[in-house]
Amino acid sequence: MTWPQEFFDWRAGIGCPMCDGRPAADEYGVRILAGKVSDAYLVRSDIQRGMSVVIWRGRHVAELTELTEGEVTAYWSEVLSVGRAIEALMGPVKMNYSVLGNAVPHLHTHVVPRFASDPLPGHPLPFPSPRPPDMPAERLWADVLALRSAITADRMSRRHTPG
Question: Is 124 a domain residue?
Answer without folding.
Answer: no
